[in-house]
Amino acid sequence: MKIQGFADVLTPLCAGALASVYLQTVTGWWLNSGRGVAYTGGALLGLAVIFGRGRTERALPVRLVALWLGAQISLAAYLFFHEGGSTIFPIVIMGGAILSAAAVAAGGGVRWLVARLTTRRNG
Amino acid sequence: MSVPRNRLFTTFVVFVLLTGSAGSIWRLRAQNGPAPGRIPVQTFKDRIPAAPVTNGDRGATYHALEREATRVTTRFRDAVAVADRTVDGQLSTRLTDLAGNEMAAFKVHHVDGEGDSLEFTLADRPDMPARHAARRAGLQPTLDWTNEQAYSLWQDRDSLDRASLEWQDTLMRPAGAPKRNLGDAALQTDTEWRGGFSATVTRKVGTHVSYISGRQTTGTVLISSFRKDGVEVGSSQWWPDEQAFAWSFPGLTADSYLTAVHLKQNGGWNFTPDMAWLNTQNLAFYQFGSLLKAKGTVSKNRTPRGWFGQLGQFIAPTVEANDPGCDGFHWLDGTIFRWCCDVHDACYYKQDPNCTQSSWWMWWTSWQCDACNLDAVYCFASGGGGHIYQRYP
Q: What's the predicted TM-score (pTM) here?
């Protein structure tokens, strides 16, 4: 059971981290443009929909938080090591955290809604 | 035990990829470090102060924008002055009465980079030869200035044959004449630029919610309307009593305002905004706002460069920790948060030594930098001041 919990966390965490850092290489630092926000936000929303799928509903928030946390870690690293930081970096990181959390929550919500509708139709 | 083998394998692969990615970033940082054996540039301990801004010289950016103007029309209570700029940069003003009869002319002949020759003639005094003078050092002739100078000399016409001329701030006056403030003499100023741009600023008495006290206040206001091909694209206001400047350029920059309080770190307004400045500032809003809208950022060219260019940028990134606007959050540059970032940048620069991003975590090194950071946090938290632009005060 412990291994299952570990995998539930590690996979979305790594996926969030990798997807986020890859998209920065496509659009440039995401919070510098509307295109960047759309791409990264959209990708996190999509990943949240994918990782929202699970055997138990209880694991859903854990996977979503792991996904969001992975994105935050990689984005913060990218901001400092690749962009050279920012004179308002705490505000940047906080703003990015809010935007990415909204995208992940929206994706999780979509997944939860779809699961509910499917269950009701089948049951 | 209950985990399928393929899930464990996927997790392992993802972990390996992430580790590799982090490793490449670490290597990049190492490559960007200073090369051994190179001597770093030493900075001055005492920062060279910025050049003072006066009414005669408002800085390179202002004058670059001003030089784009082709005609400025200033309406005074009893006269109208029309200044034109020729293609070769010569300035000439024709002063008429309200009926359109010519009363005086004033010309700026560009001699060289150091000096200009000024020429004034009165239309109703053909017996009096044209007065010639050299431009005051440091004065940058502008179209609105030639209008004010022509109007001032015309008002001094009775003293011109008797007295020599002297400079009173930016105006040539008969020697010994009492001080004159032409700041309130102009009722309206129209500025025209190439490309179909124009702006009109008028002086009126208006009522609005004060930027200082937050209560309904009545006072003098200069309102400038900026147009492209005759259609208004934005406007700005200057409330002299409050020392407050507000603007609205929908789609280009969000409604916002600036008071002397916001500029406290820079010593407040270091010049007195006037009609010509309002029009020129509007052109700046349009030009820089359009640039921002087109490029998405004012810091770097973010247009797609293809996979090879992206790879190159990843290997050798452009490191910019501080540039105009919201560093790392340029998405907000067209919003009400923009001025939070600009004021924060100015606050950082003002400190000696300059604050850096490390001031956030090394908070014990400078309380002044901490104050800058706290101001920025408060500004963002309060929605950039939460101001609503009142278009018709």
A: 0.56
**pLDDT: which is higher, A99 or B55:** A99
Radius of gyration (C-alpha) of chain A in whole angstroms: 15
B319 touches A: beta carbon within 8 Å: yes
pLDDT tens figures, B104-153: 999 999 877 667 889 999 998 888 888 889 888 888 899 999 999 999 99
* Minimal C-alpha gap between B331 and chain A (Å): 5
Q: Is the dihedral of CA B359, B360, B362, B363 positive or negative?
A: positive
The two tokens of residue B181 are 């403030």
CB atoms within 10 A of CB A104: 28
Q: What is the DSSP letter of B266?
A: G
Q: Is B344 on the interface with A (CB under 8 A)?
A: yes
* Contacts with A, B 277-316, CB within 8 Å: 296-297, 299-300, 302, 310, 313-314
Of A32, A77, A81, the CB nearest to B297: A32
Whether B24 has its CB under 8 Å from any CB of chain A: the answer is no
The mean pLDDT value of chain B amounts to 79
pLDDT given at position B302: 46
Among A11, A65, A24, A20, which Cα is nearest to A44's? A20
Instruction: Please report how many Cα atoms fall inside a 13 Å half-sphere around the Cα of residue A103, on the Cβ side.
Output: 24
pLDDT in tens, B232-268: 999 999 999 999 999 888 877 767 788 887 777 677 8
**Residue type at position B73:** T
User: Any idea where the domains of chain A sit in the sequence?
Assistant: 2-122
Nearest-by-Cβ selection for A86 from B3, B328, B373 = B328
pLDDT digits (tens, 9 = 90+) for B7-30: 665 666 556 555 555 444 444 444
Residues of A within 8 A of B357 (CB-CB) are: 85-87, 89
Q: Which two tokens stand for residue B132?
A: 């010639």
Q: What is the dihedral of CA B93, B99, B101, B105, to 10 degrees?
A: -20
User: What's the CA gap between B354 and B348, in Å, rounded?
Assistant: 6
DSSP A31: G
Chain B nearest-CA distance from A25, in A, is: 6
CA angle B321, B322, B328 (to 5 degrees): 65
CB pair distance less than 8 Å for A89 and B21: no
How far is Cα B114 from Cα B231, in angstroms, rounded to an integer? 39
ipTM (interface predicted TM): 0.83
Are B21 and A21 within 8 A, CB to CB? yes
Q: Is pLDDT above 70 for B44? A: no
